[in-house]
Design brief:
Layout: H1 4-9, E1 10-11, E2 15-16, H2 20-23, E3 40-43, H3 55-63, E4 69-70, H4 71-78, H5 82-94, E5 98-101, H6 112-124
Antiparallel strand pairs: 1-2, 3-4, 3-5
């Protein structure tokens, strides 16, 4: 059952009535770059008290307690634009409430020719 206050901020047909800039306090992007769509996020301490947090950051921490989620998955779960989620994640990261793992840079990935050479060498054994 929903409370009267919750009903005032949510319309099943229109969705959330709070604008994204209100959720991010007017910020349009994270302070630091590094949140790609496939960046994995996990709650740093699963026992953190969520009662003092705004609903969106609290939901993010709750979603990421059990297993790491990608930024895109978090945005989909919250039904918020990715840009808004990145700002919220930046805030949580600065507060040291989440841990992130950025995707492997292409330059760090092993060379495909090397992998094929290793496979061919193993097949010859």
């Amino acid at each position: 059952m929903t409370s009267g206050a919750e009903e005032a901020w949510f319309d099943k047909e229109a969705g959330h009535l709070v604008r994204p800039y209100a959720i991010t306090n007017g910020r349009t992007g994270p302070a630091r770059p590094g949140f790609a769509l496939i960046t994995l996020v996990v709650t740093a301490d699963p026992r953190v008290d969520l009662s003092r947090l705004a609903p969106e950051p609290a939901t993010i921490l709750d979603l990421c307690r059990e297993r790491p989620l990608a930024v895109a998955e978090i945005a989909a779960q919250l039904d918020l634009p990715v840009s808004v989620v990145k700002v919220l994640l930046d805030d949580l990261s600065q507060a040291q409430l989440i841990l992130t793992r950025a995707p492997v840079e292409l330059a760090e990935a092993p060379d495909i020719a090397l992998i094929q050479a290793v496979i061919e060498g193993v097949r010859r054994l």
